[in-house]
Automatic annotation (TrEMBL):
Its EC number is 1.13.11.-. InterPro entries: Indolamine_dOase, Trp/Indoleamine_2_3_dOase-like. GO terms for cellular component: cytoplasm. Catalyzes the first and rate limiting step of the catabolism of tryptophan along the kynurenine pathway. Involved in immune regulation. The gene is IDO2. It catalyses: L-tryptophan + O2 = N-formyl-L-kynurenine. Keywords: Dioxygenase, Heme, Immunity, Iron, Metal-binding, Oxidoreductase, Tryptophan catabolism. One of its GO terms (molecular function) is heme binding. This is Indoleamine 2,3-dioxygenase 2.
Length: 407
């Protein structure tokens, strides 16, 4: 392959900021807002009280009394992101307050209309997404302090107490651990365009270390999240109304559409990090997996999706490494794939513990005639896929991209 010429160099400027990606926090929204203008107090009062309102079965009654508020007093992007987090969280609570056996299949207009309006403004679907629950749902207790769990808190919660807080904040920390990798990726793409093999090697080595750090950080889930609470309490509030037997027809958004609409639940499959790494490394997933993963891109902030698409259309890293014959870059590239496959293998053990094993325990408990957890969602991800075979397939395709020296 010919090295890229100057034209492309200037045409492809990897400016993270122009994709709303922060140099400091990556895809996390930097210092998310915690308060909306006073006009929206009815929303905030309910959102702040969600765990109690859901557990005491009062949320639906409170929502039904909520005034219909227009989104026109929301100023700017950050207020809109908080409004989306707030309205999506209220929606999940409203639908699932009585568990999977009695979902509410109609969202009242005083919630549906502003929720769809703010969703359209942001280019997000009207359901709780990863960019709500995680990316816009964190704060530092001490603003000068470090990104450590002891210095972090959430803004909005569901039932699930400390386990839910841990689930959200460990995921925040995984996103934060990805930041050096996102920067390395941008540097590597510059290095391909320049071209500079030394700069590429350094960036690939940095990317590998970052992925390993993400794996270590994911491991902290075990310290903070109780599998039985995740399975029986938390999971349902992340569940959507697409491919979900508990809500086969979807949800009617009153005042928006007479037909029910179907949306997948919140999942870190909607995180932009691994999508970006996969595109950069040129990993091809099988058709079925790719269909699901591509669909998840519609659940990301549009600027993050655009970043992933930009990486996709950039000159191929793999072609560059093969044609340059630079053995160290090839080794470093393969090590990135190994680290990513290890991250995915580790994630599979997490999913096994939090979904598969927890489901088995819940089943045996049901035999003891104890109150059961959600049933229709069993063995399914919160995004509604046949979980383990999908995850293993995605992991195996990661390793299939391994490069072998040519000639
Ligand atoms: C208790 C913790 C977790 C559980 C139970 C869990 C569960 C799942 C499930 C069921 C899927 C399949 C897709 C779906 O149904 O939505 C999935 C996919 C995925 N999860 Fe997680 N997850 C957890 C934590 C995380 C964290 C912290 C991250 C990283 C930010 C993450 C990243 C991903 C990614 C990237 C995918 C897409 C598949 C891939 O690219 O390998 N997960 N997860």
């Amino acid at each position: 392959m010919e090295p890229q010429t100057g034209n492309l160099k200037t045409a492809w400027q990897v400016s993270l900021g122009s994709y709303y990606i922060s140099e400091e926090y990556g895809f996390l929204l930097p210092n998310p807002l915690r308060e909306l203008p006073d006009h929206y107090r009815p929303w905030m009062e309910i959102a702040r009280n969600l765990p109690h309102l859901i557990e005491s079965h009062q949320l639906r009654a409170h929502v039904n009394k909520m005034p219909l508020l227009s989104c026109q007093f929301l100023k700017g992007y950050r207020e809109q992101r908080l409004a989306h987090l707030v309205l999506s969280s209220i929606t999940m609570g409203y639908v699932w307050q009585e568990g999977e056996a009695q979902p509410k299949e109609v969202l009242p207009r005083n919630l549906a209309i502003p929720f769809v309006e703010v969703s359209r403004n942001l280019g997000l679907p009207p359901i709780l997404v990863h960019s709500d629950l995680v990316l816009a749902n964190w704060m530092k207790r001490n603003p000068e302090g470090p990104m450590e769990i002891s210095n972090l808190d959430t803004i909005i919660l569901f039932p699930g107490g400390e386990s839910l807080r841990g689930f959200i904040l460990v995921t925040v920390l995984v996103e934060n651990a990805a930041v050096p990798g996102i920067k390395a990726l941008a540097q590597a793409m510059h290095a391909v365009l320049q071209p500079s093999q030394d700069a590429l090697l350094e960036a690939l080595q940095q990317l590998k270390l970052c992925i390993q750090d993400m794996t270590r950080t994911l491991g902290r889930m075990h310290d903070y999240v109780d599998p039985d609470i995740f399975y029986a309490v938390i999971r349902i509030f992340l569940s959507g109304w697409k491919d979900n037997p508990a809500m086969p027809t979807g949800l009617i958004y009153e005042g928006i559409s007479k037909e029910p609409l179907k949306y997948s639940g919140g999942s870190a499959a909607q995180s932009s990090v691994l999508h970006a790494f996969d595109e950069f490394l040129g990993i091809h997933h099988s058709e079925e997996s790719a269909d699901f993963l591509y669909r998840m891109r519609d659940y990301m902030p549009p600027s993050h999706k655009a970043f992933i698409e930009e990486i996709h259309s950039a000159p191929s890293l793999r072609d560059f490494i093969l044609s340059s014959g630079h053995g160290h870059c090839l080794t470093a590239y393969n090590q990135c794939l190994e680290a990513l496959a290890e991250l995915r293998s580790y994630h599979i053990t997490v999913v096994t513990r939090y979904l598969v094993t927890a489901a088995a325990r819940a089943r045996s408990r049901r035999l003891d005639h104890l109150p059961g957890p959600p049933q229709a969602l069993e063995d399914r991800g919160t995004g509604g896929t046949a979980v383990l075979s999908f995850l293993k397939n995605v992991r195996d395709k990661t390793l299939e991209a391994t490069l072998h020296p040519s000639g």
